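Encode chain A's predicted structure.
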Amino acid sequence: MDPGARARDWSEIQERMLVPLYEAVYDRLEVGPATRLLGLNCGSGLALLMAASRGAAVTGVDSASPERLALARERLLPDATPGRGGDGGAGTRARTPAELLDDPPSATDGARTDAYSLVTAFEPVGGLAGDAERLGDLLAAVLPLAGRGAAVVLTGWGPPERCATSSVLRVAAKLADPLRGARSRPPARRDVLEEVAGRAGLKPDGSGRVACPFGYADLDSAVRGLLSTGLFDAAVSATDAKQVDKELTEALHPHRRPDGTVWMPNVFRYLVARVP
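Encoded structure for chain A:
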């Protein structure tokens, strides 16, 4: 798939599925004008835009997709005002991790006023092999930019029995690794978020679960949205795009409603941890 089209599918179809998670976290942590937020793996910036609408100063970083990052910049730039300057100012911007680390906040003291007070990782861990380790590496790089006591939010898939999408994701596992994947998609370890937080030196400070159903207008939208997540990339590499499309469509049929829409209830878990 063309990277630009895939980024648009993410932005227009899939990214909104986690809006209830963003809202629950922002409500719990009272995100507002006093918040300096750093969004990791920010995608095309919807979560950043929601925080900015509450008055927060937001910065997003993403290295996985230049196309998604470009969309995030487009979303944030129209909100730029003097002192809250789009991609180049201190208020709203989307950057690569390298750009962030090359141009960090000026002070180094953990009590500084320009440190980030909230770091979010809304891309759920547990869907791809090694994603928890990659998140840990990213946290190690950026946490020096957060102030003491800053909240760090990590998110993951809920129990497979409460995530209807788990049955669909088995297609990706089966095609990517027929011998191992045919059994099932291994569920994320129940304490994976605590493990990531512990390795990063963070102190857990509460958790929650949020219902985030995946709803699509039709089967085509569901296939495009799910493919845009990257969770099926290994399957496409191991087989071919047509086979993945075919088997993904078949796996979605049980979730199709009489009106043609596709509906999959899911529960996601988040952990709030603090920078010591």
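The beta strands are 36-40, 57-61, 92-95, 116-125, 146-157, 203-211, 214-216, 262-264, 267-274.
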